[in-house]
Design goal:
Largest sheet: 18 strands, antiparallel, barrel
Shape: globular
Structural class: alpha+beta
Distance between the termini: 51 Å
CATH class of one domain: Mainly Beta
CATH topology of one domain: Porin
Helix content: 10-25%
Number of helices: 13
CATH architecture of one domain: Beta Barrel
Strand content: 35-45%
């Protein structure tokens, strides 16, 4: 015991001890006092850089006017190395390297008496002569990264964790560009690192603290190591919540502990996380998740996976997520792992959402000219009792293509196709679906409808001055001669989304507003063979309501420094099945559409119609922007009123308050 106490005391003393760090010394700064060294370094280096830089001829002929940002390092021997340059002009990159080769060698930074590498960010404007005032204003804007490993991550091929709260901030900066590909999420860091405003936004959130513990708490990774061609970070992940709803449940809670390890070796980046979680939620969620009768376990936790029984019928749900990402060159990125993907520009997606549990996937992203082409292959599970065979779940396969095209400086259009098959229709994923450029609908037709369930879709985004207008159209099946008739033919299965994002709304900085309408016809995403529906782990792969509904979503988000607040309102009508018969009215994608009551006269939210209202207020404070650790308080109000009782939802109003601390790295959808 004494040895353990001594060891902890030693570790604690190391953490709290002051570290002696001296910035690099530029040639003309050798006689400057210590407190002015960094300022002298940045001012004189930039002065010499601008004096030697000559704008390339192609930049001049193109009349380029904008900001260029350079990440550079001063090595332990005092040499300069360029890590990244945010310019599409190869000539600019060549010139920057030439100028740095002319700069006088600096004395390296010192850490605890030994020379170490240090990183900096150098911004400047082109053309130089026309932006003299801006150059002067940037005299002190050579930024010392607050976390060196952080900036290595921003230049890696890792995915930026997809949360709506974080991505609304990223997309605000994306809007400053002429056009971009924003539908496929999560984004890759080195795809958005061109937009230095995102990086600077994070840097401005860092607190000016000097102690080791203070830096770890407020700014940095818990553990990080960095070498010439590699870096690694280790961070804990928490989701610790306590709450109460208006049911007879004593209290609600969630207890998630996880560890995330990520890094890069050369062009290969990696991330792995293991979550151990237990929880009890609002009564309507508990009843619904218990009703998802998996072959093994105690129901399915929304967005996470199968659970084990814990204590008094609570949920115990371990989850593992990991992937590797390889940046082959500036045009190709390859990923393989276990996680989620999302296609769309709104809160919901009718093409592919992150609603369901993580799955194994392989992804190829190709980016050139005005095009971005994404190939995605997924290995999924049907965990229902009827699909369980020989001690294992029924394996499902999905292959999809998405082609994003910047038609103009304001208009982006995406084309989507996807097909789902499984082990019963194919012993493994059909070799035809591995073709990265084939049309899946033609494959399904040639091999027969039982070979798979194919859907096609379209998404579009148009940029206004302070807003984006976006939309989606998904087509599951269509009979052309019936499509333009108003007779409600069952096989005209499609969905429509229309929405807008309004940034800095009403000239209030960092206030964003979203309005979104989603309409999905009955029987969309379902199939004659119920095992070929568009789902994974007993949850839809698109909208969490499945089909046969009309929904409106309104969201207001505001952030100031580390504070944030979100107000969400969801209202709609959905048609459920009746418990008094075995017919499918089109709202349950897990039922065969052969069980329909009629061929004609089908309409939105038919069957057992329910009115649904969800209001959600979330307020919080970001403790550490590097890990996105935050404290929060949340109030949810839900009104659910069906014509007749729904087996897994009571006819009730729910008030649910909760608070806690969590690392916000994925979305949770409780607005059912």
């Amino acid at each position: 015991m004494r040895k353990i106490i001594l060891l902890f005391s030693l570790l604690f003393s190391i953490l709290i001890s002051a570290q002696n760090k001296k910035p690099p010394t530029y040639k003309s700064c050798e006689n400057i006092i210590f407190s002015e060294l960094e300022k002298c370094f940045t001012e004189n280096l930039k002065k010499d850089f601008l004096a030697n830089f000559k704008a390339p001829s192609d930049v001049i002929s193109d009349k380029f006017n904008g900001k260029v940002i350079t990440f550079f390092s001063v090595s332990a021997s005092g040499d300069y190395s360029i890590n990244y340059i945010s310019s599409n002009y190869p000539s600019v990159k060549v010139e920057i390297n030439r100028v740095f080769s002319l700069l006088p060698k600096s004395k390296p930074a010192m850490y605890n008496g030994r020379p170490v590498e240090s990183e900096f960010i150098l911004p400047f404007y082109l053309p130089l002569n026309e932006n003299l005032k801006k150059q002067i204003s940037l005299a002190n804007e050579i930024v010392t990264p607050k976390n060196d490993t952080n900036y290595s991550e921003y230049n890696s091929s890792l995915s930026i964790p997809f949360t709506h709260q974080q991505y609304i901030i990223i997309n605000q900066f994306y809007r400053q560009q002429t056009n971009n590909h924003t539908a496929v999420k999560p984004y890759i860091y080195n795809e958005v690192s061109n937009y230095d405003s995102v990086i600077n936004y994070k840097a401005k959130l860092y607190k000016n603290v000097s102690s080791k513990i203070g830096k770890k708490l407020w700014n940095d990774n818990l553990f990080s190591v960095k070498g010439k061609d590699y870096w690694v970070t280790i961070n804990p992940i928490f989701d610790l919540q306590l709450g109460k709803d208006n049911s007879d449940i004593d209290y609600t809670y969630n207890n998630t502990r996880a560890l995330n390890v990520k890094g890069a070796i050369g062009k290969l980046s990696f991330s792995t996380s293991f979550y151990e979680s237990q929880g009890r939620f609002a009564n309507y969620l508990n009843e619904y998740m218990h009703s998802l009768h998996a072959a093994k376990g105690n129901g399915v936790v929304l967005g996470r996976g199968i659970s084990k029984k814990f204590k008094n019928n609570d949920f115990d749900y371990p989850v593992a997520e990991a992937y590797i990402s390889y940046a082959a060159n500036k045009h190709f990125n390859l990923q393989f792992g276990n996680g989620k993907n999302f296609i769309g520009d709104g809160y919901r997606s009718l093409l592919l959402s992150d609603v369901a549990a993580p799955y194994t996937f392989a992804k190829i992203s190709t980016n050139f000219w005005k095009l971005k082409y994404t190939n995605l292959w997924m290995w999924m599970d049907d965990v229902r009792i009827g699909s369980f065979e020989n001690g294992s779940n029924l394996r499902k396969y999905m292959a999809s293509h998405h082609l994003s095209i910047n038609l103009t400086k304001r208009l982006n259009v995406g084309l989507f196709e996807s097909t789902v098959t499984n082990q019963r229709s194919n012993s493994n994923i059909d070799i035809n679906f591995l073709n990265p450029v084939i049309f899946y609908r033609a494959v399904e037709f040639s091999r027969g409808s039982k070979s798979g369930n194919a859907i096609v879709g379209l998404n579009a985004k148009y940029k206004l001055n302070n807003a984006n207008i976006y939309g989606q159209f998904v087509l599951d099946e269509i009979t052309v001669k019936q499509f333009f008739k108003s007779d409600g033919y069952w096989a005209n299965k499609f969905g429509i989304q229309l929405g807008f994002n309004y940034y800095n709304a009403f000239k209030i900085k960092n206030l964003s507003l979203l309005g979104e309408l989603n309409m999905v016809k009955p029987y969309t995403y379902s199939h004659k063979d119920s095992e070929l529906n568009y789902s994974h782990y007993y949850q839809p792969l698109a909208h969490p309501w499945g089909s046969n509904f009309v929904e409106f979503v309104g969201i207001a988000r505001y952030n100031k420094d580390r504070w944030f607040g979100n107000l969400k309102f969801v209202a709609g009508k959905k048609g459920f099945d009746f418990s008094t018969d075995d017919l499918s009215y089109g709202g349950n994608i897990f039922s065969s559409y052969d069980n329909r009551p009629n061929d004609f006269g089908n309409k939105y939210y038919q069957g057992n119609t329910a009115t649904i209202f969800n209001t959600d207020l979330n307020i919080g404070y970001v403790i550490n922007p590097t890990t996105n650790l935050q404290i929060f308080g949340n109030l949810s109000l839900r009104h659910f009123k069906p014509n007749q009782a729904v087996p897994f939802f009571n006819k009730e109003n729910t008030t649910w308050f909760r608070f806690g601390i969590k690392t916000d790295v994925f979305n949770t959808y409780f607005d059912l």
